[in-house]
Amino acid sequence: MSYQLLYTEKSIKQLKKLDRSTQKLITNYMKNLGLLEEPRAKGKALSANWRGFWRYRIGDYRAICEIDDGRIVIVVIDVGHRKDIYK
C-alpha cells in the first residue's frame, strides 16, 4: 500500500524558494516516503504546538507532514531549513 502525497500551498511556495537540487532532494525523499508501508518509521512525532504532525529530516531541511491512514494520504504542511521551520 502506498500513500498519496499532497502538498499545501504553503509547502509549494516554500519549495519554490529553494534551489533546484534541494527541491529535487526533498521531492524524491517524499516520493520514496509515500511508497513505504509505514511512513512514521522514518520520521519523528512532534509535540506542543505541532502535536499530531510528523517531522522528516532531509539533510539540513525539514518537512512537516500530517499522515491520514484512513485516506492513505501524507499531507506536506511545510518545508524549510531546520533553523526556520519551527518559527
UniProtKB/TrEMBL annotation:
Pfam families registered for this protein in UniProt: ParE_toxin
What protein am I looking at? Type II toxin-antitoxin system RelE/ParE family toxin
SUPFAM superfamilies xref list: RelE-like
**Superkingdom of this protein's organism:** Bacteria
Q: Which residues cross the membrane?
A: none
Query: Which UniProt keywords are given for this protein, alphabetically ordered?
Result: Toxin-antitoxin system
Q: Does S-adenosyl-L-methionine count among this protein's keywords?
A: no
- Record's InterPro entries? RelE/ParE_toxin (IPR007712), RelE/ParE_toxin_dom_sf (IPR035093)
Family per record? Belongs to the RelE toxin family.
Keyword Transcription regulation carried by entry:
no
* PANTHER family per the UniProt record, alphabetical: TOXIN RELE (PTHR35601)
